[in-house]
Amino acid sequence: MILIFSSIAMLNGYLVYLLISSVDIQKFGFVDRAFFIIPSIIMIVMCVFSANYNFNRFHLRSTLFLLATFCVAFADVSMFCGYFLEFKYMFYLERFFTVSAFLTFVNYVMLENKKRAQNSVEKTTYYY
Question: CA 43 to CA 56: how far, in whole Å?
């Protein structure tokens, strides 16, 4: 399983490199490159960890977190394509993924709060 996830992470890292190298060099400086490479690596690692956790312990909360993580990653890639590669319609896709990520994060938090509320009601005992 580790081999599968590490090969997927390496493939995604190579695809990030191809995406960055396809941009015109005059428009894309060193600082811009660093500000895209570092969060991309962090997002790849976050997606791999959330996918691994979801495959090991499959329940609704882990699936919602996995969907939110992938929505954030796709929103970042869509923003990059819209801004640097000048695909104007990718901004709509970026907004869609951002709103979807926020909705799944809210659902995740609401499930967590509901579970905590149920646990606190079960543990509460009243003595008269």
Answer: 20
